[in-house]
Design brief:
The chain is built from 19 helices and 9 strands. By secondary structure, the chain is α+β, with helices and mostly antiparallel strands. The chain has 3 domains: about 70 residues, 2-Layer Sandwich (Double Stranded RNA Binding Domain), CATH 3.30.160; about 140 residues, no CATH class; about 200 residues, Orthogonal Bundle (hpI Integrase, Chain A), CATH 1.10.443.10. Strands 2, 3, 4 and 5 form a 4-stranded antiparallel sheet that branches. A 3-stranded antiparallel sheet has the order 7-8-9. The model has no long low-confidence stretch (mean pLDDT about 90).
């Protein structure tokens, strides 16, 4: 407990040859004292305490020390603090975020620990940190001998948290977070995510009074500029998208099964993890005309070590939405037909899901990614294959949103259907929107002209 109620008394003499001078002070009603051999030493210590009080610093009631001094005496290691941070975040963090925290803290810890003789192999240290130290689900398990020895070295050699109160050290850590394992620059969004994890961990250290402030705030470090606009070269036209879906279908039974999977991404702007959990009950598929899908969840793929149930995926709500939110998306007749044909040919899984892997379970990115790669090779020219055009399946979603905007669907409705905010839509699809400026201006001119005719007095 801390208190600002501090009183420092004058030095007094004692009948003691070993420590004839005594300094006494009171913190929050509790008296503390310190003996000194000379009055000069006692006066110097008294001056330190008085300076702390006049500067408005809190004192610890139990020890009587200013908080700044108590912090210096606390030698909690970075390794211990980072493990505690992981354990605190684990219960409420999504599986992917758990893995992201572990990755970021692994890189930071490797950068902070000393090099030289006795340091274990870098890959062993990385594995021990990522899979064991920073995986709270395994904190009660016993790691293999090699990993256990590496963790023991880390416990002994990791710096104290208070020693990280250095802008120079933080710059070195940030530089490591900005690189991939091969030394090449990491993607800007990856760097931002890693820095955020480090900053959160340091903020917890401030909360625990292990640090006076977050040292990252003192580092003038240029964050890599993130690409926040859609690369229009990746957007497929409707004819190109149709050709790609046809090339998917022509890859045997597996391709036939995935045609509607990719169709959901192109015609309804669904994310792969949303398509993965789509069930028959969520679909309204009339024999003619438009249908509808009601999206209420997602199943992102992640390693089994990061989920609570040990499965390689996590069932969760829609991205950036409350758990029970439902997103209703009208779907055009072409997708209605694709889904009706898919259900007729393949039926559904035991739980009503439309799409499943070859050996049952959710369709994994490795599986549909391989089919997509082959479809691009078959449907596109060599020059297009070498370009960013529909390079990954997720580009189908971007193509869908771009097509909606160019067709005149309002920003608000496009954002609602795609499950994005209007702000993100405006920022990411800025070039698409810029391309529609002339057409929108013509519509406004037309509106003015019609209003002018209506305002004219009757002859």
């Amino acid at each position: 407990m801390h208190s600002y109620d501090v009183r420092v008394w004058s030095i007094r003499s004692r009948a003691s040859k070993s420590a004839p001078f005594q300094l006494r002070w009171k913190v929050g009603g509790q008296v503390h004292q310190a003996p000194f051999l000379t009055k000069t030493l006692a006066d110097a210590r008294r001056a330190q305490l008085v300076t702390a009080t006049t500067s408005g610093e809190a004192f610890d009631v139990e020890t009587g020390l200013p908080v700044s001094e108590l912090r210096l005496l606390n030698r909690t290691s970075w390794y211990t603090h980072a493990r505690d941070h992981v354990a605190m975040k684990w219960p409420t963090a999504a599986a992917k975020h758990r893995a992201s925290i572990a990755e970021s803290l692994t890189i930071a810890t490797l950068a902070l620990c000393p090099n030289g003789k006795g340091r274990p192999d870098p890959e062993l240290l990385r594995r021990a940190l990522y899979q064991w130290a920073f995986n709270a689900g395994r904190h009660d398990a016993t790691p293999p001998d090699a990993e256990a020895q590496a963790l023991a070295w880390l416990e002994k050699n990791a710096p104290a948290v208070i020693d990280l109160d250095s802008a120079q050290k933080m710059r070195a850590v940030l530089d490591e977070l900005a690189r991939k394992k091969d030394g090449k620059p990491a993607a800007p969004n990856t760097v931002r995510r890693r820095r955020a994890v480090l900053s959160n961990c340091l903020r917890l250290a401030v909360e625990k009074e292990l640090l006076p402030s977050n040292p990252l705030s003192r580092v003038h470090w240029e964050m890599p500029k993130a690409v926040e606009e859609l690369d229009e070269r990746s957007v497929a036209t409707p004819s190109q998208a149709a050709a790609l879906l046809k090339a998917v279908r022509e890859q045997g039974t597996r391709g036939e099964h995935l045609e509607a999977f990719f169709g959901c991404m192109y015609y309804a702007a669904m994310r792969p993890e949303e398509v993965s959990v789509l069930s028959k009950a969520q679909c309204t598929l009339p024999e003619t005309g438009w249908g509808r899908v009601e999206l209420s969840g997602a199943r992102p793929q992640v390693g089994s070590g990061w989920t609570d149930d040990g499965k390689p995926y996590e069932e969760r709500g829609l991205k950036h939405r409350a758990r029970r939110t439902v997103r209703r998306v009208p779907i055009p007749p072409v997708l209605v037909t694709l889904l009706r044909d898919h259900i007729e040919q393949f039926g559904t899984d035991d739980d009503g899901r439309l799409f499943r892997a070859v050996r049952n379970g959710p369709v994994r990115s490795q599986e549909y990614g391989a089919v997509w790669k082959e479809a691009r090779r078959k449907a596109l020219t060599p020059a297009q294959v070498a370009s960013p055009l529909a390079f990954i399946p997720y580009d189908l979603r971007h193509a869908c949103v771009s097509f909606w905007l160019r067709s005149g669907v309002s920003l608000a409705e496009t954002a609602r259907r795609a499950g994005q905010s209007i702000a993100v839509l405006q920022r990411y699809y800025a070039k698409v929107l810029d391309g529609e400026e002339d057409r929108m201006n013509e519509l406004i001119d037309q509106g003015f002209a019609e209003q002018g005719r209506n305002d004219r007095p009757a002859p």
